[in-house]
Amino acid sequence: MKFLGKPSSRRAAFLPLCLLFLKILHPGHSHLYSSRYAGDKVIRLIPNTEEEAYALKKIYQQLKVDLWQPSSISQVSEGTVTDVHIPHNGSRALLAFLQETNIQYKILMEDLQKVLEKGSSLPTQRSRRSVSGYNYEVYHSLEEIQNWMHHLNKTHSGLIHMFSIGKSYEGRSLFVLKLGRRSRAYKRAVWIDCGIHAREWIGPAFCQWFVKEALLTYRSDPTMRKMLNHLYFYIMPVFNVDGYHFSWTNDRFWRKTRSRNSRFRCRGVDANRNWRVKWCDEGASMHPCDDTYCGPFPESEPEVKAVANFLRKHKKHIRAYLSFHAYAQMLLYPYSYKYATIPNFSCVESAAYKAVNALQSVYGVQYRYGPASSTLYVSSGSSMDWAYKNGIPYTFAFELRDTGHFGFLLPEMLIKPTCTETMLAVKNITMHLLKKCP
Ligand SMILES: *[C@@H]1O[C@H](CO)[C@@H](O)[C@H](O)[C@H]1NC(C)=O
Ligand SMILES: *[C@@H]1O[C@H](CO)[C@@H](O)[C@H](O)[C@H]1NC(C)=O
Ligand SMILES: *[C@@H]1O[C@H](CO)[C@@H](O)[C@H](O)[C@H]1NC(C)=O
Ligand SMILES: *[C@@H]1O[C@H](CO)[C@@H](O)[C@H](O)[C@H]1NC(C)=O
Ligand SMILES: [Zn+2]
């Protein structure tokens, strides 16, 4: 606990400040986020008719709900499941409305604060470092993840090189790990990013898991050895660093970046709607206060611009782009922005089919797979479509566990099984790349 203990005579005066500091740094504390989610509910609703969908959209807007699924109110439609996080002061109004209109619903979480506190154990029981080193079965703060990256850069210089591709809006470094055996020969590469959306904490946990597994099994597992010998992996564990940090310190359900707007007080842009591919069309919002705000112009977010620049520069040898999100249990490929199949569909489709089967073989967890538009929903300006349009032939987005029982609050207990099964899918896709399909 390096944040504890300031041995000084001014200790007493420091104490209140220190406690406040601790509260912010340790969401494992029993007053997580100052109890701001006490009494909030998460409700699943299924509008069965167009009228019901219309009525839901209206009340969502009125009550300013935090939509968990789908990501924008415009995507609420007849027959689609919607999960909403409703603040405690609005839940009465929503429930009354639902009873009155007879819309089908189910309460997923009675008290969000309680779920949040149960999911991560208390700091005293929580060991951020296991005896044998790093604990990969807890969620890590941005600072911890960056320290971990620096550490690996020093201790595994044979396989890992850490570098920065730019700065975030708030001035944080955008770090990437280049993983793979160094070789003078030309090598193809795979890009992996996690944490485009801040509240999807299982993403960064998976990126860390992937690196751990690679280092741990490079010598013993022929598949991993082949992967690291024949390819480079560019891994960005936390894409949206500002947002991720904010989701630890202020708002657990923050999704966007943290950039300011010149005309509105609302902050942030959806970093997965900010790419120059059918930018700000269907499935994206022009309003700065919306969770799917596309930004003032494409690549307005420094984080998006930095990654886009990197991919543009290296697109000749980057053969695959993988992006990790949550939650839905899906493996998605282009297009997101339109209902159409991509050219060379069969190679991508068979890669997805095999990956999903490999994933399921571990614990029986089922993933749906297909074009993002028809499998999840239509969204424009996404990183996956952009990567595909810019010449990277294999582009996928994973929506990791679960399907709504815990949603964004996937307990730390489930990090290991989730990452273990996902690992198989990623290895399967990667091996597919090394075969004949273009
Ligand atoms: C609930 O409280 C928030 C903040 O205190 C306020 O902005 C919002 O309007 C309230 N909602 C309702 C439905 O009263
Ligand atoms: C990673 O290590 C190399 C030396 O092995 C060093 O040159 C580089 O600056 C390090 N990266 C970062 C981001 O510190
Ligand atoms: C990929 O998964 C399929 C099952 O879907 C399996 O038959 C195949 O052996 C796997 N390939 C690799 C390289 O893991
Ligand atoms: C489709 O595959 C052919 C070769 O089979 C390749 O030349 C072409 O570039 C591929 N197109 C795309 C969009 O990946
Ligand atoms: Zn996401």
UniProtKB/TrEMBL annotation:
Keywords: Carboxypeptidase, Cleavage on pair of basic residues, Disulfide bond, Extracellular matrix, Glycoprotein, Hydrolase, Metal-binding, Metalloprotease, Protease, Secreted, Signal, Zinc, Zymogen. Pfam families: Peptidase_M14 (PF00246), Propep_M14 (PF02244). One of its GO terms (cellular component) is extracellular space. The keyword Cell membrane does not apply. Residues 138-433 form the Peptidase M14 domain. May be involved in the proteolytic inactivation of enkephalins and neurotensin in some brain areas. May convert inactive angiotensin I into the biologically active angiotensin II. Releases a C-terminal amino acid, with preference for large hydrophobic C-terminal amino acids and shows only very weak activity toward small amino acids and histidine. Belongs to the peptidase M14 family. This is Carboxypeptidase A6.
